[in-house]
Amino acid sequence: MRAKQTTFYDEAAPMAGPSFGGGIRFRALWRFAFDWIVGRMELQRQRRTLAALTSGELEDIGLTPAQARREASKPFWET
Q: Which of 30, 61, 29 is nearest to 46 (CA)?
């Protein structure tokens, strides 16, 4: 007779992969991290676009080249 092998995850759980207890909190944390990263990538894309604008285009949106450079030079984690 073979003994049942124990696993470190809950086989009845609907999510794939290991459950580290508090699965909903774990998934919420990953969702928050994913959303934060996607948001920062979008912000960097906008800053690159801003840096590529001409002086005339910046004037149309009410910014000076110095303001655009300052915004475009911010690190991705800074809002």
A: 61
